[in-house]
Amino acid sequence: MQKNVFQFLDVPRQPPRELPVSVRVLGWKEIYGDFAPAEAAEQSARCIECGNPYCEWKCPVHNYIPNWLKLVREGRLFEAAALAHETNPLPEVCGRVCPQDRLCEGDCTLEDGFGAVTIGAVEKYIVDEAFRQGWRPDLSRVAPTGRKVAVVGAGPAGLSCADRLARAGIQAHVYDRNEEIGGLLTFGIPPFKLDKAVVATRRGVLEHMGVRFHLGTEIGRDVAFETLLADYDAVFVGTGAYTPVDGRLPGQDLPGVHPALDFLIANGRRVLGTARDGAGPPELTGRRVVVLGGGDTAMDCVRTAIRLGAADVTCVYRRDEAAMPGSRREVKNARDEGVHFLFNRQPLAIEGDATRGVAGVRLAETAPGGGRASAAALVEGSESVLPADVVIIAFGFRPSPPAWLAEHGVALTPDGRIDTDEPRRYATSHPRIFAGGDAVRGADLVVTAVFEGREAGKAIAHALADRAVPPHPL
Ligand code: FAD
Ligand code: SF4
């Protein structure tokens, strides 16, 4: 098929249809719809196939974006799916949750003046549609090596590592303390951004590739780490970053104050139908909710609170909107769904008492300007109290290295991350322990966890093939 290189002049950027705001806030469905094949082909054909594709450079996994856009334009869906998996073990997830506006699409040549190619939506289309039509990764030419590796953590880092191990003929056994795979994909990111059926489909695909899951199994409690070291050739650690940043606000222990992840997990489990003992998120119907923080987790909390029927939801951030760390798209979605934003406000204390709970949040205005990292300068005499019934704290997360790492001589950085610095790359200071994802980088993105898991999987396969790691002792 002859390509019209000027298609972008005739065809505007057109993402898939969104659920209308009035409908989406009533439930938990993903808000973005699907491309029909003709729509995906038409939007893909807007790509001008830049000789030096900025989109691809900006993508943390360096997806072959113009190449799979071309395959979609030509209707070669299964080849596009295979190519998407060459660089990304979880493309259908990244197509949904990557902040494309500050990654591939933000750097697309067409972004300035014409509208970026809808890269994320096409990526999602390729894999959803290929899976629907029965395509699966082809491992028929992979020869088993007889090696086996334990993966601790079934988040995006662990799953990506398991994928690469399976492709290298290595038996991957993935352990997770949760009852389902996905890590924060399942027990953090809300269903309106990522439907949990997508993660369940991926689990089936990985099992089809030979990956074995041991769920509801916490390493260090249910199985000793020594057992993994004894039973496997190598171990990959992708345990994430779960220690909430402590704002040390007076009143943060009052009834009605909730840490962001507890709130999101409680709701996620309720929606999944796996809540324990009928536990669920706090009752928010008709209540005034204040969320402290300005990142993606804060956006997930405000949008969840809206869906739980809160009367009023306000996001309080200490800097201005331009300094917000998360995706612009999520801020827009939150605003469209009725969330109010208070910028340049520093929370000083949560007001209330132990009997009646939260009454409000004491705030001070901060001077405009200043980077995210620096402390915000307070404006003298600007204190006020924002009334609230419920406060959710979303100040981010720090690493949470399991104690057994240090006990086995694995070096950590001073801030608690697993040290895999040069020249080792993905290997820790222990010759048979590798690591990646938030546990190594600190809280970051799905796509960076995918990258690290992928590279660590390759590094383990190399090490085992080179006999740099001796066969496991049993
Ligand atoms: P995780 O996903 O945290 O997975 C770690 C896994 O290890 C967990 O399943 C945990 O149960 C398991 N584990 C830990 N210790 C043990 C043990 N001892 N034994 C067994 N299992 C163990 N990123 C984006 O790109 N886009 C988004 O929209 C986005 N939204 C987010 C929303 C929220 C609320 C949060 C908190 C994060 C969000 N992120 C987002 C960040 C992203 O989810 C993480 O960067 C990513 O999941 C990190 O992957 P990981 O595999 O390193 O860790
Ligand atoms: Fe195509 Fe945009 Fe990438 Fe250029 S930058 S190759 S136009 S998607």
TrEMBL record:
Residues 28-134 form the Dihydroprymidine dehydrogenase domain. The keyword Lyase does not apply. The keyword Nucleus does not apply. Keywords: 4Fe-4S, Iron, Iron-sulfur, Metal-binding, Oxidoreductase. It comes from the Bacteria. Pfam families: Fer4_20, Pyr_redox_2. Residues 148-453 form the FAD/NAD(P)-binding domain. Gene3D superfamilies: Alpha-helical ferredoxin (1.10.1060.10), FAD/NAD(P)-binding domain (3.50.50.60). SUPFAM superfamilies: alpha-helical ferredoxin, Nucleotide-binding domain. This is FAD-dependent oxidoreductase. The lineage of its organism: Bacteria, Pseudomonadati, Pseudomonadota, Gammaproteobacteria, Lysobacterales.
